[in-house]
UniProtKB/TrEMBL annotation:
<keyword id="KW-0547">Nucleotide-binding</keyword>
<keyword id="KW-0342">GTP-binding</keyword>
<comment type="function">
    <text>One of the essential components for the initiation of protein synthesis. Protects formylmethionyl-tRNA from spontaneous hydrolysis and promotes its binding to the 30S ribosomal subunits. Also involved in the hydrolysis of GTP during the formation of the 70S ribosomal complex.</text>
</comment>
<dbReference type="GO" id="GO:0003743">
    <property type="term" value="F:translation initiation factor activity"/>
</dbReference>
<dbReference type="GO" id="GO:0003924">
    <property type="term" value="F:GTPase activity"/>
</dbReference>
<dbReference type="GO" id="GO:0005525">
    <property type="term" value="F:GTP binding"/>
</dbReference>
<keyword id="KW-0648">Protein biosynthesis</keyword>
<dbReference type="GO" id="GO:0005739">
    <property type="term" value="C:mitochondrion"/>
</dbReference>
<feature type="domain" description="Tr-type G">
    <location>
        <begin position="70"/>
        <end position="244"/>
    </location>
</feature>
<keyword id="KW-0396">Initiation factor</keyword>
<protein>
    <recommendedName>
        <fullName>Translation initiation factor IF-2, mitochondrial</fullName>
    </recommendedName>
</protein>
<keyword id="KW-0496">Mitochondrion</keyword>
<keyword id="KW-0809">Transit peptide</keyword>
<comment type="similarity">
    <text>Belongs to the TRAFAC class translation factor GTPase superfamily. Classic translation factor GTPase family. IF-2 subfamily.</text>
</comment>
Length: 500
């Protein structure tokens, strides 16, 4: 048609594939060709590139240095397992509640802000344990200004300590070492420092640049010093943000809460987020309905460096997604259309690649099979007449199946291909077939014959799935026809006696 261009890749199991690369064919012609081969075509429409013209969001220019103001550093706490990351986060978070004198229940929103007595603030990403590693690779790398590396003084530098150092170096993020558990009898501060130096962590007291702060996360010792070290590092880095431009930020955490709906925590990196703002992240968007801080308090605005929970998302974005503000709803629409189109294209490309690879694999397998058979001298011409095969010899393995498909056409086409299967080694027995979802009676029949159900493009209601499981009837569901055949081949082969 004029709207669609079809790439045609026709694949018939056990034969060469036909690739009508540049052919422009209409649906009807394609259907005819494909049906002649006993298959049903699947159309993956790729709309002509009308949506693309608009493109993605046009980025605002870098801010004028004159408008920049200081902003809180964003800090990730990392370190070897059991060295005290969670305990440290808990301490920092709870000190925060007292500071705010806010009676509400703290909630985990993925990030929190600590305000020191000096008035300075620090934004901590609240990702304990191993999560901090993946966070660092994904969202963290774009978000983290400083890493606090927790090293237990009774254990010293360990495997994950080194991994953190490597990550920090790769992402060019400065590290502050928190030497933890100094309250313990077997804590060895000097040895821990030596170990760090041995791994090229140049500590300040030995003429380097890396600050090391002895702490006890458990007892709350040294936390003020740690926070001061962070502020010093932040000052050195001259962290600044533009509070005026369009909002830019990053999703720290996104989840669906059964009670509160879509919860998205973000850290604002540029601009000041307000109610009513229009935001785009990934392929979703929000009109900001309300914002909450880390203590669950409703806030009216969020300047750079602050974590906020944002309500008003149409769908949930992914952690790590970049958030950008747009001015008009019409812009939201065109940007999302463009992005979704891009994503669709990417997925289609992936599908085509997968089909291509699967085809190659199948071809190779098929050829290898033929060669093997020839070599064994057991390759025989395929039997032409269907009837001759219909009486199985009792000593032959048999494979019984029930076939269900979405429409007559597909069921017929699959049956036609089944008909071409003639093997002396294994009898293919179609005990029942039909159009529609898999039903209780399908399962009963299959169970009676110890067979399997092959379902093409139909649903398997949960109740039926449970019944099938109970009766030990495998249900093989497929949406791509050649995959169904592939699996059938695998199942048939499993019944065959091994060729020695
Ligand atoms: P994570 O795996 O790095 O998050 O470590 P956790 O915070 O879960 O701590 C592991 C264990 O070490 C827990 O039993 C903590 O109570 C303990 N721990 C953490 N910090 C300290 C500390 O400063 N002193 C002592 N004695 N134990 C600590």
């Amino acid at each position: 048609t004029t709207d669609h261009v079809y790439e045609v890749l026709l694949f018939i199991p056990g034969t060469e594939a036909y690739d009508f690369d540049d052919a422009v064919l209409d649906q009807q012609t394609i259907t005819q060709i494909v049906k002649k081969s006993g298959m049903v075509p699947e159309f993956c429409s790729r709309k002509k590139e009308t949506l693309e013209d608009d493109g993605d969001i046009v980025r605002q220019p870098p801010p004028d240095p004159k408008v920049l103001v200081r902003r809180p550093p964003v800090v990730t706490i990392m370190g070897h397992v059991d060295h005290g990351k969670t305990t440290l986060l808990d301490q920092l978070r709870s000190s925060n509640i007292v500071d705010k004198e806010f009676g509400g229940i703290t909630q985990h929103i993925g990030a929190f802000l600590v305000t020191l007595s000096s008035g300075e603030s620090i934004c901590f990403l609240d990702t304990p344990g191993h999560a901090a590693f993946s966070a660092m690779r994904g969202r963290g790398a774009h978000l983290t200004d400083i890493i606090v590396l927790v090293v237990a003084a009774d254990d010293g530098v360990m495997q994950q300590t080194l991994e953190v150092l490597q990550h920090a170096q790769d992402a060019a993020v400065p590290v502050i070492v928190a030497i933890n558990k100094i309250d313990k009898d077997n804590a060895d501060l000097d040895k821990t420092k030596q170990m760090l130096m041995q791994h090229q962590v140049m500590l300040e007291e030995f003429g380097g640049e890396v600050q090391a702060v002895p702490i006890s996360a458990l007892k709350g010792i040294g936390l003020t010093e740690l926070q001061e070290a962070i502020v010093t590092q932040a000052e050195l880095m001259q962290l600044k943000g533009d509070p005026k431009g369009l909002v830019e930020g990053r999703v720290v955490e996104a989840q669906i809460d059964p009670k509160r709906g879509r919860l998205v925590t973000a850290v604002v990196q540029r601009g000041t987020l307000k109610r009513g703002d229009l935001l785009v992240a990934g392929t979703t968007w929000a009109k900001v309905r309300a914002m909450f801080d880390d203590s669950g308090k409703l806030v009216q605005s969020a300047p750079p460096g602050t974590p906020v929970e944002i309500l008003g998302w149409k769908e949930i974005p992914s952690a790590g997604d970049e958030i950008l503000q747009v001015r008009k709803e019409s812009e939201v629409k065109s940007v999302l259309a463009w992005r979704r189109n891009q994503e669709l294209k990417r997925k289609q490309d992936e599908t085509w690649t997968a089909i291509e690879e699967s085809r190659k694999e199948h071809d190779q397998q098929h050829r290898a099979d033929l060669v093997a058979r020839r070599e064994k001298g057991i390759y025989r011409k395929r039997r032409e007449a269907k009837g001759k095969e219909s009486q199985p010899r009792p000593d032959h393995p048999q494979f019984s199946l029930v076939l269900k498909g979405d429409v007559d056409g597909s069921v017929d086409a699959i049956l036609d291909v089944f008909d071409t299967y003639h093997s002396k080694k294994c009898q293919l027995d179609i005990i029942h077939y039909g159009v529609g979802n898999v039903t209780e009676s399908d399962v009963e029949i299959a169970a009676a014959f110890e067979g399997e159900i092959f379902a093409f493009n139909v649903d398997l209601p949960q109740k039926i799935a449970a019944l099938a499981k109970e009766k030990g009837v495998p249900v093989r569901r497929h949406n791509i026809i050649y995959r169904l055949f592939e699996e059938l081949v695998v199942r048939l082969n499993s019944k065959l006696p091994k060729i020695e």
